[in-house]
Structures are given as C-alpha cells and as structure tokens.
C-alpha cells in the first residue's frame, strides 16, 4: 500500500505541475501570436476569393435574366422598361370589365409583374430606380383591386338572372389559383334568413336582422396574396437589408371612402373605397430613413485583427436594430412579432345595384355613375344609439349586432398554434385585433368561426417566433459540396439539405407543405416559401426582442459561420449545452470530422471554444459536470477556427475543404446567418 505524500510534499508537487502548465500555456500563446498575422491573412484571402467568385456569378445571372426577359414573348410587358409597363397600365385601366375568367387571367399576369418588380427591388438598384419600381408595383396592386371590384359590380348587376330557384337569392363562386370570389345577393329579403355557407370553398357568413331585409350584396373575396401588410406602419420594408445604411418606412396616405348623398360610400374611380387605394398615376413613396448601427464592442488586439477578416459583410439580423413598433395602442398588430398567413379575406357589404326589368319585351336597367356603394353597417345612428343605450342599460342588446364569419383555413399553410384574427383599419392602414370576438377554432375541420363588429378585410396571424428558441441543431456533411442542417425547434423538426447553391426542405409529411417538400430551390426562394407556409426558422432584425436568447458577440458569431461554411463539406457541427453558459464573447460547439454520411456517434464529438483572440479544443466533453476552458492535450491555440480544425484533419477531409465550390460555401453561410443557431438555440 502506497502511503500518501505528506502535506508539504503534496503542495510542492501541485505547485510544480501548475508551473509546468503555465510555462506550456505561455509557450503555446507565444506560438499563436507569432503566426497570427499569417493565419488571418490566409483566412481573409480565402473569404475574398470566394466572395469575388459569388459576385461574378450573381452578375452573370442578372445579365442572363435580363436577356431571357427580353426574349420572352408571352404578351406581358417588361416591368423594368417604364414605357412598356406604363402603356400596359393605361390600356388595362381603360379596358372595360367583361367576362370574369379573362379578367382573372389578366390579374394573374399583373401579379406576376409585381413579383418581378419585387425581384428588381431586391437587386438594390439606384434609389430613384428602386422608388420607380415600388411606385409601379403599388399602382399594379391597386389596379388589380379595382378590377376585382368592378367585376363584383358586373356580377351583382345581373344577380336577378342568376337567382337560385330554391332560395330566391343569388349566390355564386368564382375562383382560380390566386383568388376565390364568393358573392351573395339578397333578392328574396326573407326575414328568417340567417346566413349562407359557400360549402365548396369553406366560407360563410351570418347576418343580423337589420340586413336580411335590405337590398344588399355580400362579397367574400379571398386573395392568396397579401397587398395590405406592406402598407402597415409596422411592416418592415420589403427587400431592404436591415442596417446596411437605412431602414425605410413606407408612408402612404389613407383613403377615406366618401359618403354619397344617399348614405352610401362611393367606391368607384378615385372615390372608390379601396383599403389600399392610391392615385391613378404612380405616387411618390416617401421614406424616412432610420439609422441603425451595429453596437458591438471590440476589445483587445486579437479581436481587431480577427474582425479584419470580414470584408463588407452583410449586417447580421438582430444587430443593433431598433424597433419602430407603435406601442401606444395595444390593439395594433405588430408585424415584427406576428406574420399574416394565407393571404387576405375581404368581407364587404354593398347596396345591390338596380336589377333589370322587362317591359313590353324590352329589358330595361337603371344605370348609375356612382359605381358600387358600400352599405354602411353599423350606421352612424347605430353608433349614437349604442352609446346612449350603454349608459342607460349596460347589458342591453346591441343595436347593431356583429356579423358572423366562417372560413376554412388555407390549405397551403401550417398553423402550429390556434390562428389569431386581425381586421384591417383602412384609415390608419394597420392590422388591428379589436372588433373581433367569439372566436371558435375547429382544429379537426380546419375551420375558424368568429364575429366582427363591422364588415372589414381580415387575415389570420401566427407568432413569427413560435418555433424559437431552437432546442438543438446539427450540420452534417453529405459529400462534396453537400450538407444537411437539422433544427429541432419548439414545435417541429426541420431538415434543410444544401447541394451546391440549391436547398431542399425535408420534414414530416404534411398535406399543407406538399408544394415545397422535396423541391430544390435557391435559399431566398425556400425562405419565402417556408414563411408563407407557416414554418419560419429564420430570424429577422427584431427577433431578439421577442425571443429569450443568450446574446453572443455578433462579430464573433458571424466569423464562426463564415469558417463553418468553409469546412462544412468535411466537418459536422452540433449544438452544445455549454454555449449558453459561457460568456458573450465566447462560443462553444461540438465538432467532428465526418467523411461518410450517417449519424455521428455520441462520444465522437469534440468541444471547441471560439473567442475573439483565439480558438482551441477543450479537454472537457459535453457530459462533463462543470465547464472548464482547459486546453485539450496535444492541442494548440489558433487565431482562427479554420486553422484550429486543420490541425487534426485527414488528408481526404482537407481535400474536400480545398475543393468546396464558392456558391456552396456562400449558401451554407447564408443559411447559418439566417437561422443564427449559435444564438437562438
């Protein structure tokens, strides 16, 4: 049996061991300082070469797209050529509305033109050119809305000829891939009428008694697109990168419907009560710049040196962004926090246009030049009566009861939680949550019923950050220029496969996601498709305000994503529980060199600590009892994560890294930057 050392001898051994460790650490730190400049220069060169290749490819793609658009002969104007698009707008504006199906085809072409204008704005042209594109897009959107309103008027004019024999009223449904138009005309005026269900499209309404005996027509128009949220004061400017120089806020004048002499509201021409109405000619979009700066303290010479490797990097989502949300009204929907899904439902009631009568074999119709007139409900008299009645009898019945609405949830959207309803306020151009009551969500039937105080456009909302923070994540290589990012979020698990510059979404089969599952597309297109479908895994400049995260230094985080993308063909990366427990200036993640596809053995991972001055492999493991920054045996310090990984990589693995395509590297980096897994996990 070996007897323990006496206390003085034990203390001396401990002191000698600590001294050897100190000397060895100083030697390694000195070695790192001596090669720091060379490592930083090498990393900077790699990033610059890749970035130059990506920019050259993007420029070539833009030129090719321009040439393809020039050669396109489908009868549509080129939205980038102002005379062509202006001529199209002028001719279509003067074209009278005829058959509904040709009109829907024209609207579909106009929608494609607005999408093209969106892409042109994203290319960040000169400010004057970008403003011209935005004005043209807004004019097209308003023209589409006006044409659908004119089509509604034409159908209601002939309601008598299309009346149903059983009910005596007219009900019809017209739809295509972009819109569903449901119209009902009250011809019978049956006082026992309650409401109508358009069963084939899953929409319906219930009317109060004041309306069932009136000459009215009800319209339920569902557009799969959303042209209203862009007008909201809380919507972020579409197509602008946050904090590059400015974040603009589009300001539009609200159009208030004018009350006609007979009590209706004019909604034709410049008096048309269009909630997104603009002048016939393109109007100016006044933008007020809001400076956003990156507040990231850079400490120490090491960090200054490492941040030099990032040249013209895009601003990180969430870096120093200032919220412009108006908190003075709790009922105003914050579109930084909530996302409208499934498009917009327009719910309107109009005075029924004069119907034709037959006299001595002649069909006669009274023609009005007022266009469709909005039926005022609730009326001003009802508001006054309700105010007085409320003071006399608090629990008295409403003089203008609410109207009932039933809608089937859009088939192309996954609602992870019970959807919320917001109505559109045309005066303030905002989505609001008040005026909606008695909401009933039928999950099995995928339907939602509620009551509204008035007729108004409405949309369905979902928390933009319902899946955040993430529970875990893993980025695994699948071969040369191929990798898969798997994120286990709060409600779903999502896998995004990257191959070259294309991405593909994979997750548990859902009927709503059929159009996008298993399809290869570029990353921006995939991000937009996932957001539209209700599966949002991407952060924005305001996400840190709504998600409880352990903030990390944005410069260190961005540099980590750059270097992870460089080696992602040969190395797997994974979430570590220690990342949330270390300081803001440090990142901890698990790393493993993986050359064969498949899951990584649990004990094969190694922990790495990334900091401002240097990176190193940790002696501890993911299952250690406490965190320790102690350097792993046989390892060294390096100024960059890239050189740290190169120390122990195999020849085959490093060959993969050297042959990685710039477009693949750029796509993986963009995916990591848009999900920010190191902060939002």
Morphology: elongated
What is the tally of helical segments?
13
Helix content: 25-40%
Poorly predicted runs are 234-314, 317-327, 382-397
Strand content: 15-25%
Which features would summarize this protein structure in a list?
681 residues, seven-stranded antiparallel β-sheet, 13 helices, elongated
Please characterize this protein's 3D structure.
With 681 residues, the chain is of the alpha+beta class. It has a domain at 472-675. It has 13 helices and 29 strands. The strands form 7 sheets. It has an 8-stranded antiparallel beta sheet with strand order 25-24-23-22-26-27-28-29. The chain has a 7-stranded antiparallel beta sheet with strand order 1-2-5-12-21-17-18, with helices on one face. A 5-stranded antiparallel beta sheet has the order 3-4-16-20-19, with no helix packed on it. Strand 3 and strand 4 form a beta hairpin. Helix 1 crosses helix 13 (662-675), helix 2 packs parallel to helix 4 and helix 3 (100-122) runs antiparallel to helix 4. The protein is elongated, with a radius of gyration of 31 Å. The two termini are 51 Å apart. The model is unreliable at 234-314, 317-327 and 382-397 (pLDDT under 50).
Compact overview of the structure:
The chain is α+β, with helices and mostly antiparallel strands. It is 31% helix and 21% strand.
List the helices and strands and how they pair.
Blueprint: H1 7-71, H2 82-94, H3 100-122, H4 127-157, E1 170-175, E2 179-185, E3 195-198, E4 203-206, H5 209-212, E5 216-223, E6 246-247, E7 250-251, E8 258-259, E9 265-266, E10 286-287, E11 290-291, H6 300-307, E12 338-351, E13 357-359, E14 362-364, E15 373-374, H7 380-392, E16 403-408, E17 420-425, E18 430-432, E19 436-442, E20 447-452, E21 458-463, E22 472-479, E23 482-488, E24 493-499, E25 502-506, H8 523-532, H9 543-546, H10 554-566, E26 571-574, E27 587-593, E28 606-610, E29 615-617, H11 641-646, H12 651-658, H13 662-675
Antiparallel strand pairs: 1-2, 2-5, 3-4, 4-16, 5-12, 6-11, 7-10, 8-9, 9-15, 12-21, 13-14, 16-20, 17-18, 17-21, 19-20, 22-23, 22-26, 23-24, 24-25, 26-27, 27-28, 28-29
